[in-house]
Design the sequence.
């Protein structure tokens, strides 16, 4: 199997981006990624676009085609990947496989989503369909805050996790988002503000939920031969990608205090990379809701099951702690443009591993230069875990 | 690069399948494919689902998740691939790359589409969005019959192609569909019936257009090591997959008498496989409209540009001719469940290369056992060409 490296990354400003259409938004990520890699659009042989809401919460049915055209990539092989909120990681996996197999030397994963063309109740309804639509959505009216509220209450009941613990995730991630120029939210919040924000689905309050965000992120991958030919200074190698899936029907899950697909995807990724959770020095995890970050700590093996809140309270997931998590603000505060998120995680970790995190105080101190991205689709319907090493 | 073979195929009955939901339809393809391969669902490490209309012309937003669950595949890596009408081929490419790279040994590409849950005008409108939506659809009201009518009039103007030539494609493909138990249409038609059918978008009449079809097809791929371990009698090897893309905006195309993305995808596939068009003994090509089959003959190099009608008139694309094309009935008469089509093409060619075509008179005589599948998305927005060899 050929080695594959990240050689260029770009990230649009995340936020309410009604100032641009979807192709212009993509361009904001593609242009800097191409410049970063020191290549031209014509060098890119295959493009995988991660986007979940094409034709639903934004109008264009074929975003891969029109963004490729706008960015000068027409002629390359093309596909759109949908793995719900893990669509960006699925796009990375597709391009990674194409290069690792020897079919191509340079490819691009482009994650993008325009979510704010419809109002929030509509987008929440559309996202809510991404469960077992005919069963849970139609019969029970489940939407995603409700799904993750179930996870939260299960975790609280079994491990004594508190509303304050959930709020701590929000406070941490807002703190880092305030230092991240691409983040949707640029302000810190206090634990009191989080706890007194209005209820969405108990115990989740407004500040426990990621926002509805527009954004794009691009990741250019290349073979080892190409890395040498292009004289890339600081290639960031993809050591492995693990993946798994979960049932659509939640009543068929063994447990609600974690996501089995996260556990399996992580095990696969660790095994292929020959590392363990103790080797990871910086991670981006899928914190669509605050409880999801706590479950991820446990599912990824950063601590034992049930000890996520303790890890958090001790500050171990902040910079300076044992395993800094979501120091870009996470989905919670950087924002979660669904298809873009997986690519944006790789953008952040590439910047971290190159020691280029925008402001000095956002740079994680590194020794072994190993990082992990954890990207979940739905409530564990899909999961991809990617391990990177400089 | 590791060798990859097709080891199992399945195809649901194509047609108006309001008797089943999408998971049941998928099962009709997955079950025989798994039995054909002689494996169990748990052996499948990764599943790529080709489907374009999820959440649009059928309700389920995450068809990959729920079909995986229904077919016992939960836990495998999972992604849905969208490349418009080439989604099935994109799914094959994804699984092929994952195996060729050495990441997995067995994977499945599952193409599916439920198109008849909405009425025909609605589905035609939704498909029509798969151009440059904000430009051509909104401003000019273009839908796909209109797009391909433009191709037809261009071909007629430049090469003297006639309405009778178009009708000949329909007559040929209906003839073979009548012998294919999975085909949507099981009846032959005459050239007079084709020519006197009602106009859709001149010169295209009803019988020049593929139907709106429900269907699913599954293709199981495996590494060479696994082929040996499983003692597969007649593996069908994927020699190469070529791909390309075209502009969304048709005003930026150089020509209307063919699809540049088909030409480039074919050139890539021929080069990688080390064969030429003269080596192909049986082909499935993307005949969403009759003119598309004629353009494909030319774009794939089965004849010179402009000589497609001659090749057809001579009967060279029938069984017994130089290069039999769409002897399963093609999209035109077997039907075109959008995401399923690419996988169904591989189903047909695998059966042909194994000399298992259902009825004796549908089996193409083979010498070198080389076949080609040509799958287009939109009007050449995407193209995948796959070359198979037994």
Sequence:
């Amino acid at each position: 199997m050929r080695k594959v490296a990240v050689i260029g990354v770009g990230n649009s400003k995340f936020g309410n981006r009604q100032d641009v259409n979807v192709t212009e938004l993509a361009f904001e990520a593609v242009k800097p990624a191409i410049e970063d890699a020191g290549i031209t659009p014509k060098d890119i042989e295959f493009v995988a676009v991660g986007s979940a809401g094409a034709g639903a919460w934004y109008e264009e049915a074929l975003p891969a085609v029109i963004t490729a055209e706008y960015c000068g990539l027409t002629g390359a092989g093309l596909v759109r990947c949908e793995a719900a909120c893990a669509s960006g990681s699925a796009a990375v996996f597709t391009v990674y496989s194409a290069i690792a197999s020897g079919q191509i030397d340079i490819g691009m994963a482009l994650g993008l989503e325009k979510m704010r063309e419809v109002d929030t109740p509509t987008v929440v309804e559309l996202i809510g369909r991404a469960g077992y639509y005919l069963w849970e959505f139609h019969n029970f009216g489940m939407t995603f805050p409700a799904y993750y509220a179930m996870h939260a209450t299960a975790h609280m009941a079994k491990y004594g996790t508190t509303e304050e613990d959930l709020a701590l995730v929000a406070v941490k991630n807002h703190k880092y988002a305030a230092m991240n120029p691409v983040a949707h939210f640029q302000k810190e919040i206090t634990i009191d503000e989080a706890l007194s924000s209005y209820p969405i689905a108990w115990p989740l309050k407004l500040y426990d939920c990621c926002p509805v965000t527009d954004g794009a992120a691009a990741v250019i991958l290349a073979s080892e031969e190409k890395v040498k030919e292009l004289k890339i200074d600081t290639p960031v190698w993809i050591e492995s990608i693990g993946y798994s899936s979960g049932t659509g029907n939640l009543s068929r899950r063994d447990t609600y205090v974690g996501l089995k697909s996260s556990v399996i995807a992580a095990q696969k990724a660790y095994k292929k990379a020959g590392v363990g959770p103790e080797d990871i020095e910086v991670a981006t995890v899928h914190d669509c809701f605050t409880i999801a970050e706590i479950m991820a700590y446990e599912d990824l093996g950063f601590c034992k099951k049930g000890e996520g809140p303790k890890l958090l309270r001790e500050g171990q997931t902040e910079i300076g702690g044992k395993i800094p998590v979501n120091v870009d603000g996470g989905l919670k505060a950087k924002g979660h443009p669904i298809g873009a998120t997986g690519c944006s995680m790789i953008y952040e970790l590439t910047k971290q591993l190159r020691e280029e995190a925008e402001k000095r105080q956002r740079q994680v101190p590194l020794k072994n230069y190993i990082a992990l991205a954890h990207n979940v689709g739905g409530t564990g319907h899909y999961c991809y875990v990617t391990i990177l090493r400089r």
Q: What stands out?
A: Residues 283 and 372 of chain A are 5 Å apart (CA to CA). The domain at 4-118+212-229 of chain A is CATH 3.40.47.10 (Peroxisomal Thiolase; Chain A, domain 1). The mean pLDDT of chain A is 95.
